[in-house]
Amino acid sequence: MLIDVNLLPKKEPKNAVFLIVAILLLAVLAAAGAFFYWSVQKAESEMNQLTQELKQTRALEAAEQQKLADAEPVQEVEELQKTVEWAKQYPLKTVLLLQNMAKLLPERGFLMNFSYSEDTTVSITVQFDTSEDAAYYLKRLSDAPFVANVQLKSVAAANQGDNGSADSSPEEAADAAEGKKIAPRYLAQYELRINKEALKDEKENQP
Questions:
Q1: pLDDT tens digit string along 60-95?
Q2: 196 falls within a domain
């Protein structure tokens, strides 16, 4: 029987571990490259989308600004028209109203204060020599065609020193300067509602 004996050293097999590591490394690099490429593409896509949105936003903003610019002249015209209409329908002709109220005052009646609001409500303060004059003036205002309604809010004695007050009439100031005794004065407050049409008619009837 023959026996085959090989005395040569056996060859070492290829390092399988090195091969596996190399393959894994290449796979990781390939995956990283693919991910990087995908990220770059996604970023570019988002950038393009944002750019388009920015362009659209700027276009809309420009359109709105143009609308506002076009609307401003229209608004100015409308405001001017409203002002003109308001002026035409202005609640009171102040000078004419004062003239008519002054005509109704008694001889020793003095208009001390006057104010009104846009709803044709007028508040006045009048100085009289007597409280009866306040009632007399109330009656004359009630009968006046340009007064729709009138109320006497209060009547009070005016505070006056020996030398008169800052609200005294010229006659009272002269009397005070001469040392004459000044009788008590009364301040009456009225609230009136004005009839604009009647006041207008009265102006037209004036010569």
A1: 888 888 777 766 666 666 766 765 565 455 555 678
A2: yes
Pairing verdict, β 110-116 and 121-128: antiparallel
Domains of the chain: total: 2
Query: What confidence tens digit (pLDDT) does each residue in 159-187 have?
Result: 654 444 444 555 555 555 555 555 678 99
Per the CB < 8 A criterion, the answer to whether 101 and 150 are in contact is no
More confident residue, 7 or 49: 49
Residue 178 falls inside a structural domain? yes
The residue range of the domain holding 83 is 16-89
Q: What is the 3-state secondary structure (H, E, C) of 118-129?
A: CCCEEEEEEEEC
Q: Give the domain-ending residue among 89, 115, 137.
A: 89
**pTM exceeds 0.85, yes or no:** no
